[in-house]
Amino acid sequence: MPWFPDFVNAVELARSQTRTAGRADPVGRYFSALIKGDVHALEAVWPGEVVVYDPRAGEVRGHRPLRRFILANQAWLAERHTRIETVASTCAGGRAVVELLAHLDDDGRELAWPVAVVAESPDDRSVVFRTYCSQWPVDGRRHLRPPILRSGPVGAGEVIGRYQAALEAGDVDALVATFATDGYFREPFGPHDTHRGPDELRAFFTRRFGAGGGIGLEHCAVTDDGVRYALEYNCVRWGDRDLAPQAGIAIYERDPDGLLAAARVYDDVEPPAG
Q1: Which of 123, 139, 170, 217 could be joined to 233 by an S-S link, Cβ 3.0–4.6 Å?
Q2: What CATH code is assigned to 7-133?
Q3: Is there a contact between 184 and 159 (Cβ–Cβ < 8 Å)?
Q4: Least confident of 90-94, 108-112, 171-175
């Protein structure tokens, strides 16, 4: 009998390989689709449902809204000659968190914009992307970000637990003590808003808690690979002021001695006036 190529199995094998490669780097595939304007690159890997929670667009669900979102972002990123730099990644428990710096052309001046993206797959055919950032660097405004996740019990032992307790209480000395000698805290606005070492950290946290009291966070989800601990949260209180719950994420990086080498925050929470 004459030999004919098995096109059906070959196509299915190609699809399987595409899905495997995409699931190995979901955030990379997501940003590649945004930059190229190619929604099919996402749908080929996740033929079920692709859901996006974006600070600017809100919740994007369904093929047609996803296509509009991808094309609009491609145009916005291309207009600003955007270049993406990966800062760090944390993967555990079926969830991937990738920290990025988006380098944008801001009227001839390069702007480094910190962005964190969480990718989580409820099954092999679907994916949810949650993006966290401050919009202040790109439009000079803070935007209220409603909660994405519900609060729930999460583990926060060792240095992370001490940090969270000190943050809740507004205890500056206890917060500084959780950092290594060269440890730093980076605000959501960019690398220039970094506070490194005990003196800078103490001055920064003292300003943050100048009105008395700490910052209240509802803990929602944790991705912990043993080195980096990514906490998705809702901020609900600053000092003695209750806030409208606002979504954010913080990544805490441990050093070999079990102290904090870094804390990087991605949210748009505005301190109460005064």
Answers
A1: 217
A2: 3.10.450.50
A3: no
A4: 108-112
**CA 59, CA 94: separation in Å to the nearest integer?**
21
Higher pLDDT, 175 or 106: 175
- Per-position b or e across 50-80, b if 16+ CB within 10 A of its CB: bbbbbbeeeebeeeeebbebbeebbeebeeb
Distance (Å, rounded) from C-alpha 218 to C-alpha 28? 29
Distances (CA, A) of 183 to 156, 164, 255, 259: 19, 16, 9, 8
Is the pLDDT assigned to residue 204 strictly greater than 70?
Answer: yes
Q: For domain 158-266, give the CATH number.
A: 3.10.450.50
> How many CA atoms, within 13 angstroms, populate the side-chain half-sphere of residue 115?
25
Return the ∠ at Cα 115 (arms to 81 and 119), rounded to 5°: 110
Q: Given this model, what pLDDT does residue 33 score?
A: 94
Q: What is the mean pLDDT of residues 168-187?
A: 97
Beta strand 228-238 with 50-54 is unpaired
- CA dist 22 and 44 (Å) reads 9
Identity of residue 22? G
Q: Are 266 and 133 in contact (CB under 8 A)?
A: yes
Q: How many CA atoms lie within 13 A of 14 on its CB side?
A: 7
pTM for the predicted model, two decimal places = 0.90
pLDDT at 11: 34
Q: What is the pLDDT of residue 93?
A: 87
All CATH 3.10.450.50 domain ranges of the chain, comma separated, are 7-133, 158-266
SS3 content of the chain, % helix, strand, coil (to 5): 30, 40, 30
Nearest alpha carbon to residue 122 among 95, 142, 101, 148? 95
Q: Specify the higher pLDDT residue, 196 or 1.
A: 196
Work out the number of other CB atoms within 10 angstroms of the CB of residue 23.
16
Residue 21 is predicted with a pLDDT of 53
